[in-house]
Amino acid sequence: MNITHASFVTLPVSDQDRALRFYRDLLGFEVTADLDLPQGRWLQVAPKGAQTVFTLSGPGMGDFVAGSARGIMFVTTDVDADCARLAEAGVAVEGPGGFPWGRMASFADPDGNGLMLLTEAHQ
Asked: What average pLDDT does the segment 10-15 reach?
């Protein structure tokens, strides 16, 4: 096997414009693709410099259920500050809490896709 990385992760959403505002404007992701295709809009976002991008898959772009993604982990340099920013924006955040591997919190996007933030412990 010669796999080097994941190309994209699908995040099923019901409203791509609302999801774009969340991921771009609140989380600070960059738009890496925004194309109108015959079957629908192909919209991808990613943290700056990331190899893996996130496809905000709306209606018509596959047999996905909005809000069904779980366990997407974003690494951050400051989980506490990011949690405070999310809370100020009205996002319900659980945590952060301390674990042997770092400080972690969970939250959801507007469709209910389960997301997590992690500041890794320094070894």
From this structure: 96
3-state DSSP of 72-121:
EEEECCCHHHHHHHHHHCCCCEEEEEEECCEEEEEEECCCCCEEEEEEEC
Q: Which tokens is 53 given?
A: 């991008």
3-state SS class at 9: strand
Q: What is the pTM of this model?
A: 0.92
Rounded distance, CA 34 to CA 95, Å?
A: 33
Measured between alpha carbons, how far is 75 from 6 in angstroms, rounded to an integer? 16
Residue 61: other Cβ atoms inside 10 A: 19
